[in-house]
Amino acid sequence: MSVSAQKIATLTVPINNTSGSFHVPVSVSLDDITVLPDSMLSLFEITDGDRRSVAYQIEHGQDREMHWLLSPNKKGQKKRERVFELVKGKPTVVEAAVQVLDQNGALLIQSSGNNLLRYVYKTHYPPEGVDSAYKRSGFIHPFWTPNGQELTRIDPPDHYHHFGLWNPWTRVLFDGDTVDFWNIRDGKGTVRFAHLISRNQGAIYGDYQTVHEHIAFKKDGSEKTALNEVQSVRIYKPDTEDDYYIMDITVELDCASASPVILQEYRYGGLGWRATEAWNDDNSEVLTSEGNTRKNADGTKARWVIVQGSLGADYGGALMMSYPINYNHPEPLRIWPEGTNGRGDVFANFSPTKDRDWPLYPGNTYVQKYRFLVYNGEMDEQRAEEAWQQYAHPPKVAVDLSAGAIAGSTSDVKESRKVLLYTKNGEGFVHDNIPYAVEAIKKLGAEYDFQVDVSEDPSVFTEDNLKQYKLLIFSSTNNDVFDTDDQRLAFRRYIQAGGGFVGIHSVTGTERNWTWFKKMVGGSFSWHAVLQEFTVVNIRPEHPSVEGLPKRWVRKDECYFTKEMYPGIKVLMAHDLNSLDLSLADNQERLVKEHSAHFGELYPAVWHQKFDGGTIWISTLGHMKESYQDPVFMQHILQGIQYVFNETGALDYTEAYARGRDDEVRY
C-alpha cells in the first residue's frame, strides 16, 4: 500500500505572530482523529511536494494528545501555513531528546547530556549555623543556560528564604490568621513537597508534575494545610545547536479545607526568581514589555520581562512571560532596583497580588501559567514580543479527515472563514464600546486568518449576500436592527442553512419584538445591575469555547439578566450573584432576587446552542470599551468564534424552510 493511501489526516497549522525566530510547541487531540495505537502512527511535513519525517511525542491523559515542535520558517520564507500528514505506518524511532532523571532527592532534566533544570523535592537545609527554620523543599535550583551557566541562587546571606525559582505567597488570610509562606523564618507557615504525580521524557519534551502543600503553623503548635498546589514543569529543547530552550510552568491552587484563602495585597508574592550571583548593576539588565528597565520597572505591569547579563565570557538570561488568563494580567512586577545589597543583586517576580487581593474559594481551582525562554546570547524587545505572541496565541491545528485531502491555499482558507461583523443599533442606548470591538475583532481576523467585513447597514441582509459568510457576529447591537421583514427572513434562512452566529453583550436586547430571534439568541434583555467588579464562574471549563479561561473570573462589567429565556441553551459561564454589591442602587436586591428565583446564586452569562439549523454562541459580557483591549476577554471572544467556525459546515439552503419571518420552528 502506498504512503498516500495510508494517510489518516491532513493537519494544517497557520503561522501567526512570528517572524521565524523560535520553535513553537503545537498539539492535536489524537482521539478525535484515529483509534489506531501509537505504534502505528507517523507524522510528515509536506513542503512543495517533499515529505519530511517529523518527531512527535504522545501524551496520555484523559485524551491522547500528539505534540511536536513547529520549526521556524527558513530565512526568506513567507509561508502563512504549514501542512503535515498523519499516516498509518511504523513511526521512526527517536531517542528521548529531553531526559528526566531522579537523582539524590531531585529531578534533573537534561538534553544531549547537558543539564537544563533541577527540581529539589528533598528538604534542603540552610548552611551550618543558620536557623533551621529556613529549610524548604519543592523548588527549582538551578536552571541553567544551554551553555551550562547557572541562572538561580539559593542560601544568599541577605535572604536565606530565597530558593532559586519558587512560588510562595506572602500575606495570606486563612482561618482568621495572617500567614506568611514566603518569609519562613517567622514561623507562620511554609511550603513542602508532598508527592510526585508524574514525570515523562521523550522526543519533544521532558516534564514532571508535583504536589506542594502550603502549611499554616497554628498558634497552638499544630499545623494545617491551607492550599494544595499542583506544579507542572515542561521543558522543550529544540535542536542541539539551538541556543535556547522553552520552560513552561503551570501552577494550580486549590483550597485544602472548607476555609477560603485570601491572598492579600502585598508588594511581592507568587513566582519569584532569585537570579545568579554573577549579576550586578554593571553587567546585567532588565527590560519589560512596556519598555521599563531596572530603574523604573518595580511596581509596573508587564506581559513579559527580559532578565539577562554577563556570565563570565558568555552572555545569557531568560525571558519571563505571563499567560493572558493569569489573575491580574498583565501582572504587576517586583523588580529589585539598582544598588540592592550594595552591588545590585537581581530578583524578578510576577506578583499578581501586588495591587489587589486574590480570594480563593473551596471547590475551585485557580491556574497561573508562565513560560521561560532560557537562552545564551542577547534578547531584544522585538524577539521577546514575538515569543510572547507565540505563547499567548498558539497556532490552532486544523484537521482534515477527508480522503486524500490536502489543505488549500491561504486564499481558500480566508474565503471559507469570512465573517460579517454587524453593529447596527435602533433607537435607544448605543454602546461606546463598538468601535473598540470592531478594531479588536478585525485584529483577531488578521492574526487568525479570517476576513472581517464590518457593517451597520441592514441592506446587507439578503440571501445572496449572506451566502459568502461562515458566521455572523452581532457586537453590542440593540433594539431593532433590521429595516424590513425581508431582511429578517434572509437572516433566519441563513441560520436554517447551517450558518453560525456569535452575539456579544447587548445582543440579548436586539429585536425584542421578534419571537424567533429571541429564541435564537436564548432570551431577551430585562435588566442589568450597576456597573461594578464581580465574579463570573466558568462552570464548563472543558468546553472548547471557555477552556483555559479563569475558573472564577473577576472583572468589571454589567451583570445582565434576561426574560423569556429559551430552555434549549447550554450555559458555559455564570454570574456569581453573591459577588454583586447590591447597595449601589435602589431596588437592586429585589430585582436580583426576582430574576434569580430559578437559578440561585449563579445566573447564565455565556451559553451556546444549536437552534433551527444554526450554531449559536452568546456572551453577555463586554460592556466596557476597555474590555476589547484586555487579552483575556479577547481570548474569550476568539474562542467563541473558533468554536462556531469548527461547528459550522458549508451552507445548505435546501434546509432553509422558512417563507416568512414568523413561520413555526421545526424543532
TrEMBL record:
It holds the Pfam family DUF6807. This is DUF6807 family protein. PANTHER family: GALACTOSE-BINDING DOMAIN-LIKE SUPERFAMILY PROTEIN, SECRETED GLYCOSYL HYDROLASE. Residues 418-644 form the ThuA-like domain. It comes from Albibacterium profundi.
